[in-house]
Amino acid sequence: MATLLYRLGRFSFRRRGRVAAVWLLLLVVLGLAAAAFHGPTGDKFAMPGTESQRALDALAKEFPQASGATGTIVVAAAQGRKLDPAAIAPVVKEAAGIPGVVAALDPFTSGAVSADGRYALVQVQFANALKDVTEAQREAYMKAGSSVTGLRVEHGGEVLNAAPEVGGSEGIGVVIAAVVLIVTFGSLVAAGMTLLNALIGVGAGMGGLFALSGVVELTSVTPVLALMLGLAVGIDYSLFITSRYRQFLAEGVAPEEAAGRAVGTAGSAVVFAGATVVIALAGLSVVGIPFLSVMGLAAAGTVAVAVLVALTLLPAFLSYAGARVLPRKQRTGESAGAGGRGFGYTWGRVVTRLRVPILLAGVLGLGALALPAQDLRLALPDAGTAAPGTPAREAYDLTSEGFGEGFNARLIAVVSAADPAATTAAAGEAAKLIQQTPGVLAVAPPQPNAAGTTALLTIIPKAGPTAAATEDAVHAIRAKVAKIGGAEIAVTGATAVGIDVSDKLADAMPVYLLLVVGLSVLLLMLVFRSILVPVKAALGFLLTVGSTFGITVAIFQEGHLADLLGVDVPGPLVSFLPILLIGILFGLAMDYEVFLVSRMREDYVRGDAPRQATINGMGHNARVVTAAALIMTAVFGGFVFMNDPIIKSMGFALAVGVLVDAFVVRMTLVPAVMSMLGRAAWWLPRALGRALPDLDVEGERLRHHLTTGAAESPERAGVM
């Protein structure tokens, strides 16, 4: 593989104009396609096979007027005053007049008035599903009740669910990344070129994703996740190849040859690292959850594009930059580098000398940080976790104030039978059983469809949407109504859907974790031709995941230091965060494992003693890995400033995971373990060695070709 990539690097360097033109043309084409075919995103977390999804499907067929998007307008009178029908009437009339609204219920008719008469809920039913509600309809909905004076009117409900906006706060990560690149390279040209290369890759990847959004339904989180990952790995992959190119230039290798060797060696590690991220993300498809599969495949696509850009467009940019990628002192011959006196060498010597206490401290410390993870709770976010001051949050809080948390967690029991009589009997029996269920506040009278074969029971829990008591109540309701014969009864609603999603993801997480760990052992066995190195890498990954979960739970669920991150209401983590985190961190952890350990193996294969090879690996790559980890942390951390709770928690967890894995696991525990294992680290049974293909990630065969004249000599490579 290294030899093939070496040729690709030299070709891209030599044909820089054509390569750059192809990528720029592709970027323009994908941008135009995105503008032409861009489709809406939404927050529909469909879960085929679950009870809540079956009930929603039945509603769409038997009760279509109740299957569209819904909204809730909360009206409150001044302190000490009561509402009356005349005061509410204008709100109901304006809501009913919104295009696409099939019904707006008068609270005095539906009984949605608080006991003290001060609060009322106007239920608004749209004809279309959420993804088909237009911005004009949302704007009209937000204006309903604006003519009323003397009353507080807040608008909430699922109709307000919209994609999170990617604003200027995320650019903080890019700015920090630029600063880190400048400090690392000591060259504005090298830093700017690396960043530009990554941004082009992100632009191409996002253009392709949005072009497909017209035919593939995306959740609102999917583009943000793809942007987050594509930007982070794009910068890192370009950083690794540029660093190796600069190293070859400093050694006196001609520019074209240096580009070929950089792509052949560091590029091999980039291909493997990118492949692990892509496989881990695409592997989310095995969970069997459509929105998660699309999310994983979309992010995997942007990572794949980042790899292609780093292998092809970057050498073309290096050709344009020439020697200007080096600091001025190196270009003028004033500095020969730090040799073995750099911090990486010093840190490698310290870690290998104090390996036992460092291992104990690291493992025990990460184990302690993982302890809060045992209390992990999962749920889909609701309006109660929205940013303070947003319409959805204001409506949620006002509803809780006037009616209690449970009115924000309403459930629907769908009762279906062959004839109206059976439906009526089953609905009546179900209402009695549900009312007696612990955690249930009230059950509304059955609402039949026109044929009388399907009836809806609105259920009000006592607790909020993400409360453990509400989850227990849903399971208890389902157990009770399952005993009713002659009808099919299913519980659904946004709260029930969230519970089903969380349960299925929680069940899938151990299986996926086992798949990822097994995959890491197999892939690293192929790369390093070793048994113990992959096992060590997998155990380190488990430490990373456990401690990251623990820290995230402590802040976002338990509320410790929550104010520092703007977490207004601590609560359960978003249900798909843990499984996404496992997939993403696996790929990123393997990045650093490959970049560090491949250099250790490279020096070991060339004859260095195991301990010295470990120190050399740290000395050569510690600076670059440090820069890469800081860049990834900055990019992910930039998303913590978003108001959307899903993106905030995702950005935080990824930033913490990268810090833990890069600095504690890979740059501290890995060299400690490698020095302890010695030559045993590279042991591989002969039979297994013959069966496994030799991927040549460290470029040993490439060096053999270069030294035996199979490749062109540096003198023939050509200089800019």
Automatic annotation (TrEMBL):
Name of a matching Pfam family: MMPL
Main subcellular localisation: membrane
UniProt keyword Cell membrane, yes or no: yes
Family: Belongs to the resistance-nodulation-cell division (RND) (TC 2.A.6) family. MmpL subfamily.
Transmembrane feature ranges: 171-191, 198-216, 222-241, 262-291, 297-321, 354-373, 509-528, 535-556, 576-597, 624-643, 649-669
Keywords, sorted A to Z: Cell membrane, Membrane, Transmembrane, Transmembrane helix
Membrane topology: Multi-pass membrane protein
Domain SSD intervals: 188-320, 511-676
Signal peptide interval: none
InterPro entries referenced in this protein's UniProt entry, alphabetically: MMPL_dom, Mycobact_MmpL, SSD
Subcellular location: Cell membrane
Cellular component terms (Gene Ontology): plasma membrane
Name recorded for this polypeptide: Membrane protein
